[in-house]
Amino acid sequence: MGNSNFANHPFLLGFEQLDRLIERSAQNDGYPPYNIEQTGENDFRITLAVAGFTLEDLEITLVNAELQIKGAQTEDTLGRTYLHQGIAARHFQRRFVLADGVEVRHAYMENGLLHIELRRDVQKPVSHKIEINQR
């Protein structure tokens, strides 16, 4: 595990997986660049710059509250002679850990940008009295 040890605090019971989630989400490199914006009180948008990728090159999956975006371009160099090749066909995998109650609403491409719309389901606080029994 990383340097974080907040999950070992005696008042945080059952949060052991947070260190692993944080460590997994920190494994992203800087490609592709992305924005996260709040579009409403409980609405968010993740936008990734994926110029050169087609819809067929991209895959979005949600696995155990982890949003995974993968891109794989096929290099089409057949019959091309490059004098300079600064645009590489590069594979990527970007991960975002979603909190409980956050759902993926939809995704769409526009002008080389992949937009993923998210919504947080606001739950009302739950409170109930715990009965104490005699043993």
Question: Care to describe what's here?
Answer:
It is a single chain. The chain is about 5% helix and about 35% strand. The two termini are about 40 Å apart. The radius of gyration is 21 Å and the shape is elongated. The chain has 1 helix and 7 strands. It has about 140 residues and is mainly β. The strands form 2 sheets. Strands 1-2-7-6 form a 4-stranded antiparallel beta sheet, with no helix packed on it. A 3-stranded antiparallel beta sheet has the order 3-4-5. The protein has one helix at about 15-25, and strands spanning about 35-40, 45-50, 60-65, 65-70, 90-95, 100-110, 115-120. The protein folds into 2 domains: about 1-30, no CATH class; about 30-120, Immunoglobulin-like. The mean pLDDT is about 85.
In summary, what is this structure?
The chain is mostly beta strands.
Pick out its properties.
135 residues, 2 domains, three-stranded antiparallel β-sheet, Immunoglobulin-like, elongated, four-stranded antiparallel β-sheet, 1 helix, mainly beta, 7 strands
- Class by SSE composition: mainly beta
Strand count, sense and barrel status of the largest sheet are: 4 strands, antiparallel
CATH fold descriptor of the largest domain: Immunoglobulin-like
User: Which segments are poorly predicted (pLDDT under 50) over 5 or more consecutive residues?
Assistant: none
Shape: elongated
Number of structural domains:
2
Spatial order of the strands in the main sheet? 1-2-7-6
Using only C-alpha atoms, the radius of gyration works out to 21 Å
Average the pLDDT over all residues and give the rounded result: 84
The CATH class name of the largest domain reads: Mainly Beta
Number of strands: 7
Assembly type of the shown chains? single chain
Percent helix among the residues? Answer: under 10%
- Write the element-wise H/E pattern from the N-terminal end onward: HEEEEEEE
Count of discrete alpha- or pi-helical segments spanning 4 or more residues = 1
Intertermini distance: 40 Å
Strand content: 25-35%
The CATH level-2 architecture of the largest domain is identified as: Sandwich
